[in-house]
Amino acid sequence: MYPKKFEDLITAFQQLPGVGHKTAERYAFEVMNWTKEKQEEFLEGLKVLSTGIETCRICGNLSDGDLCPICLDETRDTSLICVVQSPKDIAAVESIQEYKGVYHVLNGVIDTSKGILPEDLRLSSLLQRVEAGNIKEVILALDPTVEGETTSLYIETLLKDKTQVTRPAYGIPIGGHLDYTDSLTLLRAFQGRK
């Protein structure tokens, strides 16, 4: 129905998560209606993927060079490491403006059903950081899923007797109702009560 190049554009947008054919078609028409300048600006933004975005050699966060802004920040507490699944999780933790330590990005979690094993994650570099530095605490801020829990338990075992390992408290969200809360969340809320 459309020319092949336009169909290719639709197919390209469909590769984004949660974007079906109709949404991709709308995106393609939207981009076609942009001015040439806006299209060029968009293309330049995409080119950064292959030429400018790197990963920090220390923590694995996204960076413009060898080190990310957090690892370059001398005011951060380097004795406190927050372990996260991906760089987008760092943005979530940073949004609370309370955490002043550094990070370690695993680039995933253990998921045997998908063939992701401990050696596929950035665990050896985490272990090296703990063994090399004066690390007082490692916070495991992984998603509370089966895979996140499995990974957290694995890391706790790995770091046993090397440093203090903690996790953020789990509980009932503000505005939540007890009768709608699953039993595991309710159990964690009672275990972590203040």
UniProtKB/TrEMBL annotation:
Q: Where is the Toprim domain?
A: 79-173
* Gene3D superfamilies the UniProt entry points to: 3.30.60.80, 3.40.1360.10, 6.10.250.240, RecR Domain 1 (1.10.8.420)
| SUPFAM superfamilies xref list | Recombination protein RecR (SSF111304)
Q: Where are the zinc fingers (C4-type)?
A: 56-71
PROSITE patterns according to UniProt: RECR, TOPRIM
Q: Which UniProt keywords apply?
A: DNA damage, DNA recombination, DNA repair, Metal-binding, Zinc, Zinc-finger
The protein's matches in Pfam families, at most eight in alphabetical order, are given as:
RecR_C, RecR_HhH, RecR_ZnF, Toprim_4
Q: Which InterPro entries match?
A: DNA_Rcmb_RecR (IPR000093), Rcmb_RecR (IPR023627), Rcmb_RecR_Znf (IPR015967), TOPRIM_dom (IPR006171), TOPRIM_RecR (IPR034137)
Q: What functional role does this protein have? A: May play a role in DNA repair. It seems to be involved in an RecBC-independent recombinational process of DNA repair. It may act with RecF and RecO.
Q: According to its UniProt record, which protein family does this protein belong to? A: Belongs to the RecR family.
**Which NCBIfam families does the record associate with it?**
recR
| Name assigned to this protein | Recombination protein RecR
Q: Which organism is it from?
A: Faecalicoccus acidiformans
* Lineage per the UniProt record: Bacteria, Bacillati, Bacillota, Erysipelotrichia, Erysipelotrichales
